Every structure is written in structure tokens, then in C-alpha cells.
Amino acid sequence: MRHARASAHFSQSDFVRLRNPRLARAALVISGFVSLSACEQNSFVAPPPPKVEVAPPVQRAITRYLDATGNTAPIKTVDLVARVQGFLQSINYQDGSFVKEGTTLFTIEPETYKLKLEQAQAAEVGAQATVKQADADFKRQTDLVQRQAVSQATLETSTATRDNAQAGLQQAQVNTKLAAVNYGYTNVAAPFDGIVSNHLVSVGELVGVASPTQLATIVQLNPIYVNFNVNEQDVLRVREEARRRGMSVNELRQLPVEVGLQTETGYPHKGKIDYISPTLNQSTGTLAVRGVFANPDRTLLPGFYVRVRVPFDKQEDALLVPDVAIGSDQAGRYVLVVNADNVVEQRKVTTGPLEEGLRVIESGLKADDRVVTAGLLRAIPGQKVDPQVQKADAAPPTAAK
Fold first, then answer.
1. Are residues 193 and 101 in contact, defined by beta-carbon separation less than 8 angstroms?
2. What is the DSSP string of 294-357?
3. Whole-number Å distance between alpha carbons of 334 and 365
4. What pTM, to 2 d.p., does this model score?
5. How many Cα atoms within 13 Å fall on the side-chain side of residue 57?
6. Per residue in 60-89, pLDDT tens?
């Protein structure tokens, strides 16, 4: 009986070990691996959510601008021409130099016209003497007629002589003025302050023979115009804003305008609008606008292409996010937002202008939203993240991590 009970407790592994020691050792190794695997499965812990940097939108006042490309143009540009015939006597300026208004630039054989002026002045003096004599004779004949010493016909002859003398004096005065004008044309002067181009004729050349001869060109650089075009959509936006603010057309013409050259940072040149076309160009769908700018240093030259912006609206509480935090897909622009459960959401937004590395958000975002600003590749919509809150006014990151 004792032997049978002992046999009942004798396991199969004991039997295998007794029959084949090598198989017994293999069984023990396999059993150990199975036990180790079971321990590892029981100790597995899910990885933590990825860390991303989030920040609320920056809230501040912004100015909205109309952006355009324009070109500079002179306010005044005049071709200097010879208005009298003669030989060019002298050129009194350096090509390309700045001259003041009234400066003599060319002299055209003045002696001949000076003599003609003196001749006309002498004829005027003679006409004045004739008028004086005719007037005295008229008075004398009038007195004699009243005393019935001469006939009425004699008085009429004296009257006609006086009238002819006065007409001759008027003609002589006109001739003197014409001679003075022609004499003045022998000195070609600058009509305004400006830069004079290279001369187109040489000293000693005969000018003004058949028609006025162009001598040079003078260009005024201060102030200077900037011409640009505004598309129809922007025109409607500005008109709506003007209507909302109760601005008149004259007030619109006084809007400030800023320009910058292609090599300049920002818009350092300040001016104002002085002309708005009354109609749109149907072929381009744009409205012609012109600004005027002070240009004392002559930094702006006619023909430059410039960047133009016109401030037309100011918003006190605009929302802005770093430009690198904005993504895009076929549906449009979006930002990644972490909700109250720390789950990433993709939020469709409407974007506005760029302000110092921050993009204005027109719609789709609230002031208390947590926007993912760094770690964008780890932020997957629908999954949890570990948000690291940054300051709202922190500098925008240069690239997504």
C-alpha cells in the first residue's frame, strides 16, 4: 500500500529525468524561458505622451495695410528748348548737376536781340512824342472851333491825327514788349529746382532755325510721385472701411502711404495719397492711385520699382500665432490645438498679414486656445500629448522640432 501511494506522487518529469537525463535538462531550460517571458509581459508600461510646446495666441493691436508694387515718377519734367534763332553762345552748367530755379543754363546770341529791344524802345519814345504833339494840336483846334475861328473839318482832322498817334504808341509799346520777351529767351533758365540732363547741342551751333530746338531736360526730384494700382477686391475693402468710419473721399486722399526700395528693410519713406482715379481699368481690374513723397536727399529716383503699403484699418485685439505653427492642406490653412483633455485637434483658420514673424488669424481661433508652436511632428490629431505651456509673447520658433 505504501509503495502504491508513492507511485501515485511520481510525476512524468521524474520519469523522464530517470529515463533520459539530457532530455530532462532541456526541459528545465525551456521552462525557464517561458517563466522569464511571462515576467516581462507582466512588467510592460505604455510610453508617456510626447511633449510639445503650446502657447495661447498673442493678442495685440495691429494695423492692416494694402500692399502693392509701384514705381516712382517725377512731379515735373521739362524739355528746355531754344525759342529764338541764333548761335549758342555758352552752356552755363555741368551735365547732371542740381540747379536752383532761375539759374541761367544756356545763352543764345543775346546781342542781336538786345539791339532789337533798344530799337523798339526808341520807336516807343518817338510814338510818345507824336502822341503828345497830336494831343496838343487837338486841344488847340477844339478851342478854335469853340471860338468859331476854324471849321469843324479841321477839328476832325486833328482828332484823327491824335487817335492815330495813340494807336501808333500802343503798337510801339507792344513791339517793345515782344523785343523784351525775345531778348529774355536768349537766356534759357531753370523753371524750377531740379537736375539737368546732359546738353544736346554744342556751343556755336545754330539753334531755333525751323522749330524750337531741344537743349536739355530738367527733372524735379523733390517732392516725387509714386504710382501704384489697387485691385478691385482691396478697393471694395477700403470703401467699406471708409463707409464704416464715415470718411469722405477727400479724407481718403489724405491717407498716409509708405514705400521701401528693393534693397531697404521695411518702409522708411513716408508720404500721403494725393490722387485716386475716378474709374477702374477694365482690362486689369485695378484702380490707379498716386502718392507724393518728400525727397530732400534724392534717394528716390524716377523709374524705381518700390514696395508700397497703405494703412487703412487698425484692430486693437487681433490674435497672432507664429507663422511656423500654421500648416496647410487641400482644405486650406490650419493650426494644431491641444484641448482640455490634452488631445490634439486640427483647427481650420483664416489667416491675415504677417507681423514680425507672427501671422494674424482672422477667424477659427480663440484667445484661450493652446496652439502647438513646437514639436509639430509629434503632435498627431486625435492623440494625447504632454503640453509644455510657453509664454504668449515668446519669440516664435525658427523651425518645428
1. yes
2. --TT--S-TT-EEEEEEEEEEEEEEEEEEGGGEEEETTEEEEEEE-TTSBEEEEE-EEEEEETT
3. 10
4. 0.68
5. 26
6. 888 888 889 999 999 999 999 999 999 999
